[in-house]
Amino acid sequence: MRVADRLDRLPLSSFHYRLLILSGLGWLFDSMDGGLMSFVVARLKSEWHLSPDRVAVLNSAGLAGMFVGGAVAGSLADRFGRKTVFQTTLLVFSIATGLCALAQGFWSLLVLRFLVGFGLGGELPVAAALVSEFAPAKHRGRLVVLLESFWAFGWAAAAIIAEILARRAEMTGHGFPWRLAFFIGALPALYLIVLRRALPESPRYLSSCGRLDQAETVIRSIEAESGIPAGSPLQPDSDSAPTVRRTPRLRDLFCGDLARRTVMLWLLWFTMAYSYYGIFTWLPTLLAGQGFPLATSFRFTLIITLAQIPGYFTAAWLVEKIGRKATLIPFMLLCALGSFFFGSARAETDLILWGCLLSFFNLGAWGVTYGYTPELYPTWLRGTGTGFAAAFGRIGGFLAPLAVGRLMAGGGGGFTSVFVMFAAVLAAGSLSVVFLGEETRGRTLEDISG
Predict the structure, then answer these.
(1) Dist CA 400 CA 60 (whole Å)
(2) Contact 31, 150 (CB under 8 A)
(3) 62, 117 in Cβ contact below 8 A?
(4) Intervals of the chain under pLDDT 50
(5) Distance between CA 440 and CA 448 in Å, rounded?
């Protein structure tokens, strides 16, 4: 039997849920750091007397690191394994986040945020590829979207921590303790110990390297845990046998049918990263700029962030019910609609309503994007393809905070123009999925990439 046959016949078991939690907690900690940074910047803007352009540069530094991290880590994951790269990037992220608490000024924090982004950008696409390669075909989309949902819990945790620290600062008369916030964000370093022991390497990757004995051992342990008899001895998969295995290169992403898939995914990732990072890294600062006290803007951000959670779960149900494309396109368009009306809202209730709808559909679409991407590449190229798609998206994530900074500067159009811009980008980006996307629901990874 092929690795795919053995894995796809498995029922969902405690192994799959443990894998989801082990990978998802890494995402939660990463997200918590990004969320805390958005709240820290709202404080540093006044403490360090930062101009809107410098705020934008700080917000974009992490995205520049994510661009490099995604491209490098994805290729390394195809050469050295998903597990090794996942652990290493998480360690880089954790150490750099802790060092941010010791930053003495704008430039030192800028460099450290680049390193944080490098670790974060490398971890996320590799984790998505890892979960995708373990998941049975009929549950794959749902599991990867649920993996992405941990991002919302991390942002919610960041918002709760920030509001508690902000209220404590108000009561004591001291400023927001941003150094403490960064120390809290460094906690994933402790989680790395658990991750190293409990996370197995992908059998699909092991098979692609010709290490069938190791792949057999991993699969047999999952079969035993799932309570089903062991399958027939493994045979090499057609897309990853050692006789056809080669070192992945960037140009491989543009060969044959992969070219159309790569163009679609790069445009999709650019759109999603541009909208998400442009909106959420600036959100506390933008709300504070509307005249709300810092603690109030943090509370609004928390409420809006919590709407991401049902967005993920709704998308996780729909991707296996109606498909990837049929879920992704409406979510992107409805997010565009929410962004448009959020930009014209002024009353508190309107801001919360449209902000929650924007958040619900944006993060639901993100979940589908992470699940969709690794499905479209063969095993030997999956890490590289996912990593470069994520890296190209970070260009959008890098540019968006800078664009918001320009629009918020004098004569730039302000709050309303910012969200009209995001609405237009999301609507335009959905067209790449309409015309270039293909449906992958219920198909094995090998059938899709074959």
Answers:
(1) 8
(2) yes
(3) yes
(4) 240-245
(5) 7
